[in-house]
Design a protein that fits this description.
Elements: E1 3-11, H1 15-22, H2 28-31, E2 35-43, E3 49-58, E4 61-73, E5 76-83, E6 87-99, E7 104-115, H3 121-146
């Protein structure tokens, strides 16, 4: 059964600067920790990634999978699993909220994971938490170093 995990972080940058890093899939291996390879397979009419292949190594969860991305609002990106060897579900989103004068952003990362193989719930939740925490920490460091 899939479970939902969520966390947030404050980044000293505008939502546009944060989204620029999130949308740069080719550089994910440089800052995410778990993503070892990333390849954009298709883009939408606005040139944003719509289908991305990712090679993931998050300890208990290792997989070569493809995610379908959507960009429903200016400060929102979401994804869902298109193809995977190990995962049954991998849905998530980044929600960006400008703070103060727009030079700070609260980033909320939501993730729902379900694996095809039996896995203890606590191991899966720990892997989800590790993915989210490392992604948010890596995103913060990457964005703030570029601003």
């Amino acid at each position: 059964m899939a479970e939902h995990t969520s966390s947030n972080i404050m980044i000293e940058a505008s939502p546009a600067d944060v989204m620029a890093v999130i949308a740069d899939f080719a550089r994910y291996p440089e800052w995410t920790g778990e993503v070892k390879e990333a390849e954009v397979l298709a883009t939408d009419a606005e040139g944003r990634a719509s289908l991305v292949r990712l090679l993931l190594d998050a300890g208990a969860i290792k997989d070569d999978h493809t995610l379908a991305y959507s960009w429903p609002e200016e400060n929102v990106v979401s994804w869902s699993l298109s193809k995977s060897q190990m995962l049954r579900q991998l849905d998530g989103s980044y929600l960006l909220a400008p703070l103060g004068d727009g030079t700070r952003t609260e980033v909320t990362y939501q993730l729902t994971v379900d694996v095809k193989i039996p896995m203890l719930g606590m191991i899966k939740r720990k892997a989800e938490k590790v993915i989210i925490d490392r992604a948010l920490t890596g995103l913060k460091k990457r964005v703030e170093a570029a601003v």
